[in-house]
Amino acid sequence: MKASIGVRLDKKFIEELESLSEDERLDRSTIIRKLLEKGYKQYLREKAADRYRKGEITISKAADMAGNTIWEMEKILIDQGYISSYSVDDLEKEIKMLD
Fold first, then answer.
1. What one-character DSSP code corresponds to residue 54?
2. Is 20 helix (H, G, I), strand (E, B) or coil?
3. What's the number of CA atoms in the CB half-sphere (13 Å) around residue 3?
4. What gap in Å lies between CA 38 and CA 52, rounded to an integer?
5. CA–CA separation, 80 vs 60, rounded Å?
6. How far apart are the C-alpha atoms of 43 and 46, rounded to whole Å?
7. Are 34 and 65 in contact (CB under 8 A)?
8. Do the Cβ atoms of 63 and 88 come closer than 8 Å?
């Protein structure tokens, strides 16, 4: 089911949307929907990454929240400059615990 919403936008922004609409050969509503969807997905990725960095959620939960795989979520974190504190020593300890 689709619904309509009204949004007030700055005149300059509307002009930029019109220009983009012409360049893309799409109507203004379609351009706005595409940008809104893209922005929403980016927002979810950023929010998930932030919550993961704060230790609030696991990488698996962050990936689910962002609509990505764990590997994609790791790439997002790396692209944002995240450096894990997980070390080779941590890995060796975990391997010993498995034995």
1. T
2. helix
3. 2
4. 21
5. 18
6. 5
7. no
8. no
DSSP state of 57: S
The token duo for 51 is 């919550």
Domain ranges of the chain: 11-98
For residues 63 and 48, is the Cβ–Cβ distance under 8 A? yes
pLDDT tens, position by position, 46-83:
999 999 999 999 999 999 999 999 999 999 999 998 88
CB 76 within 8 A of CB 68: yes
Report d(CA 77, CA 59) in Å as an integer.
Answer: 10
Q: How many CB atoms lie within 10 A of CB 63?
A: 21
Amino acid at 16: E
C-beta neighbour count of 46 within 10 angstroms: 13
Distance (Å, rounded) from C-alpha 31 to C-alpha 18? 9
State pLDDT tens for residues 13-44. Answer: 999 999 999 999 999 999 999 999 999 999 99
User: What's the CA gap between 37 and 31, in Å, rounded?
Assistant: 10
